[in-house]
Write a structure and sequence with these properties.
It is built from twelve helices and 19 strands. By secondary structure, it is an alpha/beta fold. Bound molecules: flavin-adenine dinucleotide and glycine. Glycine (GLY) binds next to loops.
Length: about 400
């Protein structure tokens, strides 16, 4: 067996794996990062970069608190990355608008405004004239908006670049074009990872393979599980099920020095995100299409309609790019962060679904802390992989597990 010389191997070089590897190395851990292709080239590249927990939230819950803390960590995170690497991740604090087009939208906005203001969160309610005064290119059909001054955006491709440089500068051994094929488990403990470049032993492994996280197999020497102890079945019990959910994006070129909008704007069924370099990203779709990353005619049409509903003049802008990415979704929509329920020294940093960019600062810091201390930081407790054990048990006993789908998403 080839030793990686590492205390920890991180598998997957998207924003999740990069954030964890950087934090591990900064804390003095010998870290190897294994990436099947190129760093930051999958969902983390395809994303729109919004840092916006309030826009979508109907109530305060563990996820909301976690997401707000991660968002609030962004200014210091951006400063630290700039200091470490010289890369500006273009944290833009103009804010986010959520538009109302119908009476139903207005009622929903009134509810959202009341609970968020009551909870001490920053949110403003604007009428039609105020909204259009702020963003003149918005549709005349807009009846008002919620403005979220603390809902920001970041250039996620620059973020991946900054994290990759920070990892290398902190001493992470980065292995691109290296596919992890399986994790070897002996006596209930992770011992090594089989890759396309050989087998690497390490003290611990962090699985951060995004939408592909469930494809990593676990080779265990454990006896087949007894029906009395289903919790001990490594392949079934300990692997969270992560599925790919496709999102498509169209990229417009705005007129030079003439941004169509300055805020991130959520409209009916989608959003537009203006970038500093003159691009306007418009999204998106939410599709179960397996691992297919195609952009489809139906997707293009839906996104164009949504963008024109927000800002009709987008119809006159040239479309200069289009792409799709695969969001990693767990069965309850929540991230999977923490120690495996049954295999020692195996950790997960995956399932970030629609919010992996937003959650990068806390994912990196808290998963690294957990790997090093062995204790679960309190904010990670609700996202433990152990929560799926009850579901797996119910399945093995023949009852039907109904995923808790509690968030309404764009
Ligand atoms: P990825 O970035 O997909 O990285 C996983 C990596 O693991 C890949 O590089 C892959 O090659 C590698 N890998 C997989 N299997 C193996 C293996 N066996 N061995 C080695 N390497 C492997 N989030 C936000 O917070 N804000 C947004 O505005 C936002 N907008 C989005 C818009 C779209 C259209 C999409 C698709 C997503 C959006 N997201 C957004 C979600 C966000 O992109 C994801 O949650 C996040 O990028 C997930 O990061 P990741 O590192 O887990 O996955
Ligand atoms: N969070 C935006 C998206 O997933 O499309």
């Amino acid at each position: 067996m080839e030793g990686s010389g590492a205390d920890v191997v991180v598998v997957g070089g998207g924003v999740a794996g990069l954030s964890v590897a950087r934090e591990l190395a900064r804390r003095g851990t010998r870290t190897t990062l294994v990436e099947r292709a190129r760093l930051g080239a999958e969902a983390s590249w395809a994303a729109a970069g919004m840092l916006a927990p309030q826009v979508e939230a109907d109530a305060r819950d563990d996820f909301f608190n976690f997401a707000c803390s991660s968002r609030d960590a962004y200014p210091a995170f951006a400063d630290a990355l700039r200091e470490e690497t010289g890369v500006d991740i273009e944290l833009d604090c103009t804010g986010t608008l959520r538009l109302a087009f119908t009476e139903d939208d207005e009622r929903e906005h009134a509810r959202r405004f009341e609970w968020q203001r009551g909870a001490g969160l920053l949110v403003e309610q604007l009428d039609a004239a105020e909204t259009r005064a702020l963003e003149p290119a918005l549709s005349a059909r807009v009846r008002g908006a919620l403005r979220f001054p603390r809902e920001w955006q970041v250039e996620n491709r620059r973020l991946c670049d900054a994290l990759a440089r920070a990892c290398r500068l902190a001493g992470v051994r980065v292995l691109e074009e290296t596919e992890a094929r399986s994790l070897n488990v002996r006596g209930g403990r992770f011992v090594s990872v089989e890759t396309s470049r050989g087998t690497f032993g390490a003290g611990a492994v962090v699985v951060a393979c995004g939408a592909w996280s469930s494809l990593l197999t676990i080779e265990t020497d454990a006896a087949p599980p007894s029906p009395l102890a289903p919790v001990l079945d490594a392949n079934v019990e300990h692997s969270p099920r992560i599925e790919p959910v496709r999102g498509q994006i169209l990229c417009y070129a705005m007129r030079e020095n003439e941004p169509l909008v300055r805020h991130v704007v959520y409209g009916a069924g989608g959003y537009v995100v203006p970038r500093r370099d003159g691009r306007l990203l418009a999204g998106t779709t939410t599709e179960r299409a397996g691992f297919d990353k195609s952009v489809t005619e139906e997707g293009r049409r839906a996104i164009r309609l949504c963008a024109e509903g927000i800002a009709p003049a987008s119809a006159d802008l040239k479309i200069t790019g289009e792409w799709a990415g695969l969001r990693p979704r767990a069965e309850d929509d929540l991230p999977v962060l923490g120690a495996s329920a049954g295999i020692e020294n195996l950790f997960y940093a995956t399932g970030h679904y629609r919010n992996g960019i937003l959650l990068a600062p806390l994912t990196g810091a808290l998963v690294a802390e957990m790997v090093m201390s062995g204790a679960t930081p309190a904010p990670l407790a609700p996202f433990s992989p152990a929560r799926f054990i009850a579901a797996r048990r119910a399945e093995s006993e023949g009852s039907c597990f109904t995923p808790k789908l509690h968030r309404k998403n764009f």
